Amino acid sequence: MNERPRLKEHLANLLNALTNLSPSRNLISQLILLLPKDLAIVEHSYPELTTASAKEILQLLGIKFGDQVRREKGFAEALYLHIHKTFDWLDNELVYHRSGQVVKELDVRSEFAKLLDIDQRNLPNPYMEWAKLVLRKLSNEQLGRKVINFIRMLLSHESIEIYNSDLREPSQWDTFEKEVTEKLKVNPAEFEELCRLTIGDPKLGSEELYYTGSRRYTESQAVLNHSEYHLDFVYKYSHYLYYGGYYGGRSVTERYAFRHKETLKKLLEGFEE
Q1: Where along the chain do its domains lie?
Q2: What is the pLDDT of residues 228-246, one digit of tens each?
């Protein structure tokens, strides 16, 4: 019996199942991804998911309704983590650490396309689907085109230094903020809102991508702060340099680094500057 055709069939089924759990295709997954939210916001955005019968079902999945609608530990939290892992895996964005260097996995989508004998463009990319919906929504919000151009400005950099304990002069981030405020004509409050929408929302927590050294003497650390709609393409990389002697201590450098760049740049081509 030839097992390869059967394996290809089951692989295709697996990819279809993962894709259909994506928030771009599944309303329940979308709600789970975007929590926590105020109940009033959820009732306005997802009226069909806040009926009495719908609440009973969602509570079984691990969603708690109150003044705030939240994920509880259980299936909802597991699905939330799965969504992020699938986003990264099928967009070739597995960022992790090995032997002192950040490396990426092999080109997953390309390899799967070869195995399935299909054009890679026909292989679903859940992150691209979701990012397309998010960019469209962001472009229609109050800051509109400014959000899109802010993302463009971020992605024009390989990374941006946001803090250096050894320097007493303005950081690269200070310079970047000045460029944004001048080019996009935004005030400080609008700049903070652009950051919340695209870089990270403190209410949504963070995820450690990797660290080097030990927990006591960390040499470097990469942390992903989840943004409002989980575009999640910006992560903070911190590097720590320890020095000894009587006045021993450490210096700290922090940078914003970027991922999902190829996918986002391709999608941004469809939006006006």
Answers
A1: 3-128, 135-268
A2: 999 999 999 999 988 765 5
